[in-house]
Specification:
By secondary structure, the protein is of the alpha+beta class. 35% of the residues lie in helices and 29% in strands. The strands form 2 sheets. Strands 1, 2, 3, 4, 5, 6, 7 and 12 form an 8-stranded mixed beta sheet that branches. The longest helix is centred in the last third of the chain and has 20 residues. It starts with a strand and ends with a strand.
Length: 285
């Protein structure tokens, strides 16, 4: 039995980049790596089946399955995935699970952890997950900036040395589906135009204030905000900073949990901090 932990990741603003080379495909963007994320347990089976359980329920989690099969194709495993954040709400849970599962597979097979990152990136792109979460997660930064799309060394992710900060998450409604949004050609053109400008502006002048300002400009200008998200950001912005999680029906803010609870009704709230922690094996035995 091998277990691993992988941090979650919020994308604040981005634009998709599609190429013929899957290692150069992904997105440019700015995100927040989180102290909470995904724990995965990998246990060998006597057959060649892959059986996956996610948060206590049997699941057809193709992204995590593909991440493992890319590394070990001839053995079966039980894969248990436990998430600190809900799936489909903009916290990079598909990428986080894929990285942790692939890391376990590399530990099992004696392969370098860089192979886990490549495998997770391939699985996330092919499986319709996030376009840049894997790249952001594997950068040693609280606020990873995906300067060039793709998994390093094909892509480039940089650290602009912003300090750690408390982050509160508010989940406001049903999950959004990344594949449906980025497959819309008209919206994709808008994401490229607005997202590219936001990323370039942030690189020129990185700060926490700039992060939230550009997040708000991106989500409002692209039309991604729902009425609930717009209302929540407006309320929180009277006393603090808030932005929309890409791509989820959720927001992130620098307010504390109690402050956020007093402002937003009927939301599920999670407290964490930005983190430069890296994916790691937590147990082998």
């Amino acid at each position: 039995m091998i277990s691993a932990f992988c941090p979650g990741h919020i994308t604040c603003f981005f634009h998709p980049v599609k190429t013929d080379n899957i290692f150069m495909t992904g997105s440019r963007g700015v995100g927040i790596k989180l102290s909470k994320g995904t724990n995965v347990i990998l246990e060998e089976r006597s057959d060649n089946k892959i059986i996956i359980t996610v948060d206590g329920r049997s699941s057809d989690c193709k992204i995590a399955e593909l991440a493992v099969k890319n590394i070990i194709s001839d053995k079966g495993f039980d894969i248990t995935i436990n998430n600190d954040f809900p799936i489909g709400q903009g916290f990079g849970m598909s990428a986080s699970a894929a990285i942790a599962a692939a890391l376990c597979a590399c530990e099992y097979s004696g392969k370098d952890k860089k192979e886990a990152y490549k495998s997770a990136h391939i699985a996330d792109i092919k499986g319709g997950g996030g376009l840049g979460d894997v790249s952001g997660i594997v950068c040693n930064s609280n606020f990873p900036v995906r300067k060039r799309a793709g998994i390093p060394p094909y892509g480039e992710v940089i650290d602009l040395n912003l300090k750690k900060t408390n982050i509160s998450i508010a989940i406001l409604g049903d999950p959004l589906h990344t594949r449906d949004i980025i497959s819309d050609s008209k919206l994709s053109e808008k994401l490229i135009r607005i997202g590219s400008r936001c990323v370039d502006l942030f690189i020129k002048s990185p700060s926490k204030d700039s992060l939230f300002y550009l997040s708000n400009e991106f989500s409002s200008s692209t039309g991604l905000e729902t009425v609930k998200i717009s209302d929540a950001i407006r309320k929180v912005s009277k006393v603090g900073n808030a932005g929309m999680c890409m791509l989820g029906h959720s927001i992130f803010t620098d307010l504390g949990e109690d402050e956020l609870n007093a402002i937003i009704d009927n939301a599920s709230i999670i407290q964490c901090i930005s983190s430069n922690s890296m994916p790691k094996i937590t147990h082998k035995g």
